[in-house]
Amino acid sequence: MMTAPDLTTPRERIRSGRMRRQAERWSWMFMRFSGAILILLIFTHLFVNLITGDGVSQIDFAFVAGKWADWWWQWADFLMLVLAMLHGGNGMRLLINDYAHRKTTRTVLMGVLGVAVAVVIVLGSLVIWTFDPCPVDADPSLLPSFCATVAA
Ligand code: HEM
């Protein structure tokens, strides 16, 4: 009986395509898990912003500031941001692999995709984690009520 070759070094595993197949299996699992978590996060997000309270008309600076004063919403939005970008980015990677046949086209599109995903994650995270709910020179009527206690 023929036995499979013993591919021990990373170089041999890469050459055999085994590592790529393993990576694609992890990518497949990531898409299933992140998809399920994203459904929960996105529907909670839409429900809280559009249905509870005064609905979409309640969304202003104070509403966003009020949410991000709570670490729970900061983490929920951060998780939604990262998972949505990685899920969408990985999905686009598969589309590029399927439809871009020329090597240069694939390399350029993959580069643009990687940069776009990284920029959105970095900028979105900066917004969430450096957000100032009580900026000093702002009109007090636009700020959340807890800023009055902070200023006093
Ligand atoms: C009409 C529908 C939507 C409205 C009115 C809306 C509104 C908002 C508002 C007011 C915020 C600021 C913070 C917060 O409320 O949590 C926000 C943040 C966010 N939303 Fe939505 N949203 C909508 C749909 C979506 C959908 C469908 C997604 C996901 C695919 C999404 C992803 C996000 C993310 C990731 C953030 C955090 C942004 C950041 O990092 O700065 N939103 N949204």
From TrEMBL:
<dbReference type="InterPro" id="IPR034804">
    <property type="entry name" value="SQR/QFR_C/D"/>
</dbReference>
<dbReference type="InterPro" id="IPR000701">
    <property type="entry name" value="SuccDH_FuR_B_TM-su"/>
</dbReference>
<dbReference type="Pfam" id="PF01127">
    <property type="entry name" value="Sdh_cyt"/>
</dbReference>
<protein>
    <submittedName>
        <fullName>Succinate dehydrogenase</fullName>
    </submittedName>
</protein>
<keyword id="KW-0349">Heme</keyword>
<feature type="transmembrane region" description="Helical">
    <location>
        <begin position="108"/>
        <end position="131"/>
    </location>
</feature>
<feature type="transmembrane region" description="Helical">
    <location>
        <begin position="72"/>
        <end position="96"/>
    </location>
</feature>
<keyword id="KW-0812">Transmembrane</keyword>
<feature type="transmembrane region" description="Helical">
    <location>
        <begin position="29"/>
        <end position="52"/>
    </location>
</feature>
<keyword id="KW-0472">Membrane</keyword>
<keyword id="KW-0408">Iron</keyword>
<keyword id="KW-1133">Transmembrane helix</keyword>
<keyword id="KW-0479">Metal-binding</keyword>
